[in-house]
Design brief:
By secondary structure, the chain is an alpha/beta fold. It has a single domain, classed as 3-Layer(aba) Sandwich (Glutaredoxin). The strands form three sheets. Strands 5-4-3-8-9 form a five-stranded mixed sheet. Strands 1-2 form a two-stranded antiparallel sheet. Strands 6-7 form a two-stranded antiparallel sheet. Strand 6 and strand 7 form a beta hairpin. It is globular and about 60 Å long. The two termini are 28 Å apart.
Length: 162
């Protein structure tokens, strides 16, 4: 698990418009609120994405970029964005490379349709605040969806100004 003070792991992931987004694009330019969520169009994930989208201007004024990441593909992200009018940029991590680097994956036992227990990798709802220097300033694992965007906005506002 990442801790405040760690260097944020680099990533390069496509967004819903097939543009590749890399953490290095923001180093020296803005802080990054990087939130990982389990799945597009589920109730909690929709609440979280809508709340981040509603506050996107405030995040930008405070000097931060907000990026949402899940294992859904870019097509699913595009539909999710368009269906709910989301403004936040959604990144696709189908292979879970970024999720593993940030320590947000967990193995879960699930029963198959045949009744046999299997293990699958799930993404734990988690958020990271990365400053302009690429340093993790907050690493929050297992967060709740409702009200989380407002909490993160306050954390961004507490970052030292440049």
């Amino acid at each position: 698990m990442l801790q405040p003070g760690d260097t944020a792991p680099p990533f390069e992931l496509p967004d819903a418009d097939l543009e590749v987004v890399a953490l290095e694009q923001f180093i020296g330019r803005s802080a990054v609120v990087l939130y990982f969520y389990p799945k597009d169009d589920t109730p909690g994930c929709t609440i979280e994405a809508v709340e981040f989208s509603e506050r996107l201007d405030d995040f930008e004024k405070a000097g931060a970029t907000v990026l949402g990441v899940s294992r859904d593909d870019v097509e699913s992200h595009g539909c999710f964005r368009d269906r709910h009018g989301l403004a936040v940029r959604l990144l696709s991590d189908v292979d879970l490379d970024a999720a593993r680097a940030y320590g947000v994956t967990q193995e879960k036992a699930v029963a198959g349709t045949d009744g046999v227990q299997r293990t699958r990798t799930a993404v734990q709802r988690s958020t990271f605040l990365v400053d302009r220097d690429g340093i993790v300033r907050a690493a929050l694992y297992g967060v709740g969806a409702r009200g989380h965007a407002a909490e993160m906005l306050e954390r961004v506002r507490q970052l030292p100004k440049r």
